[in-house]
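Predict structure. Input: CRISPR-associated endoribonuclease Cas2, 86 residues.
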Amino acid sequence: MKYLVVYDISDDKIRNKVSTRLKKFGMRVQYSAFEIEIKKTDYIKLYKEIASIIDKTDSVFFFPLSSYSESLILKLGQVKREEDVI
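Output follows.
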């Protein structure tokens, strides 16, 4: 299944840990947003892992993307390389 994962994490070290884990499953589409494709078992592991890393002031959202919802997404511009948004 595909997800859009967005986060607001103030601590650089924690934010880097989260982004490193998300990179394993997809690509960064904005500074604090990843589009990932992941199996349910891996999703549960990733969710628990991120939950154990972040603190109470942080937020991470996992938005499921169905094939229908993906077809309705309008995108302006394009990320050419991962380095462009880091």
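The domain at 2-67 is CATH 3.30.70.240 (Alpha-Beta Plaits).
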